[in-house]
């Protein structure tokens, strides 16, 4: 069954999922935040088939999330580097991480942690807040749809 493109959807969530909505793409972006930049590093770390990795990297480059650059060590290899657009996905990755920590691990189960470089403290919880500083939830927000 062929996947339907959501690139023309009026919903920003749908358009976003059209670009980064499969788990491989999000894991590639996650690894890029962790400093992975070479095809072989992505392939080894994720354990994914080379053809799938190649397709996902091509898509992320085409959408301006990653860019191809010469290897920083001067070798003949190339690297995949997050662009400003790619780095703007950081809150998405953090939100997924925090949701997973809250809902997919037993209370004492070991898992990786995201910490601040200065002091090594866990990063604060991400919470959408309104203009008055109140926590925003589905109960006090709404989507205004295009007619």
Automatic annotation (TrEMBL):
Keywords: DNA-binding, Transcription, Transcription regulation
Entry's Gene Ontology molecular function annotations: DNA binding
Gene3D superfamilies: Winged helix-like DNA-binding domain superfamily/Winged helix DNA-binding domain
Keyword RNA-binding: no
Domain HTH hxlR-type intervals: 11-108
The protein's name: Transcriptional regulator
Organism: Serratia inhibens
